[in-house]
Amino acid sequence: MSHSPARLRRGAAFAVALGTLMVPLAGAPAGAAPASVPVAFAAASPSPSPSGPDVRTLTPTVARQLDAAVQKVMQEANVPGVTVGIWTPDRGSYVSSFGVADKSTGRPMTPDLYMRIGSETKTFTVTALLQLVDQGKVGLDDPIGKYVDGVPNRDTITLRELAGMRSGLFNYSEDDDFYKALTSDPQRPFTPQELLAYSFKHPVLFPPGEKFFYSNTNLILLGLVVEKESGQRLGHYIQQNILDPAGMTHTLFPAGAEFPAPHAQGYTDQTANGKVADTADWNPSWGWAAGAMVSKQEDLRVWARTVATGQFPDGRWMISPATQRQRLITPATPIPGAGYGLGIFNVQGWIGHNGSLPGYESLTIYLPSAQATLVVLLNTDIDHEGQEPSTLFGEAITKIVSPDHVFNLPAEPAAR
Fold first, then answer.
1. Rounded distance, CA 174 to CA 270, Å?
2. Which is more confident, 409 or 269?
3. Per-position DSSP letters for 343-389, written without gaps between them
4. 100 Cβ partners below 8 Å, 6+ apart?
5. In whole angstroms, what is the distance from residue 113 CA to residue 121 CA?
6. Sign of the C-alpha dihedral, residues 126, 128, 133, 138?
7. Among 98-102, 123-127, 385-389, whose mean pLDDT is lowest?
8. Which helix (H) or strand (E) is 268 found in, with range?
9. What's the chain's Rg over C-alpha atoms?
10. Among 24, 37, 60, 282, which one is least packed by beta carbons within 10 Å?
């Protein structure tokens, strides 16, 4: 087979960089006891300050530089279409789309299109878990075996280690049989239990907590925990307790392959025959809690700050300050300058997540020191010389906008 399942496994651009989704891929209640912070992880998250020298003013000259940089990456990496948004409190904004949303018709890419966001889904799933922590329904240091049966090392792997990508569980999307099943019938649905079975037939990779390894398996398990302890389907919980309070009316957790219009067509070479295919109608259930969600640029603009601060736009806490502090503790990974916390990364000061699944990539990050937001959405996941297109855009853009905070994930992922 010309295509290794490794690329699929990385489902999140960061995954690839830090480990591997491959294929794919409400405020704390009154009186809720704040979660304790283990001494080993005690650290304060950076506190936001007004825009300063960390971000350049987005003048017409800077906008032209951004236009040129984005178009250069598009040409070099053969990206059909991309939308870029940058927002600051007092140094202007920049929103532009380039290229086409549909290669067959020439329909242009525009900022109002729905896009699949892959592993950015992880930030929503972990947020749901952390809300349950605030409600006293689960504990971050509880073993996964308390909630889900049949997990290898179930009595020693904690929910914290799952959320922080330090469980040692094999990544199901790196399994050869999974890759064959997905690419032979991309419209087929997968259940969480089927996905876990692909992982659990492999031995664990290392003792829990020993090191960082990006695994979609972790998020499938956390999704099941959220469902069990909330009594709701994961998508319903996220809608009612995260999306609705945040005012994110154009973001959804699909139950199947639904994809609202207007949306961009997506292009991948992660196919059974290695030829480029349009993936808009592929079923993202294989990513479920790790990578199934759909959103628009404007909603992701809202989410970038919300997830980085733990507060909804109206000022209410999405999760308690104590729990948010734990989330933003981002221990080092094998990638220089990059740390990974609880379903969120910090790359050179930019906090957020990226996503990649066949046909689509995304990047949603927030720079607390400048209260600046960057969102990049594109309709291909085909690598360019071993690099994720979303990372190429992120690096080119931040070299201009925040030269002291360049989003520079390396070309070669540590565990690929």
1. 13
2. 269
3. S-EEETTEEEEEEEETTEEEEEEEETTTTEEEEEEESB---BTTB-H
4. 80, 81, 106, 107, 108, 109
5. 18
6. negative
7. 385-389
8. strand 267-268
9. 19
10. 60
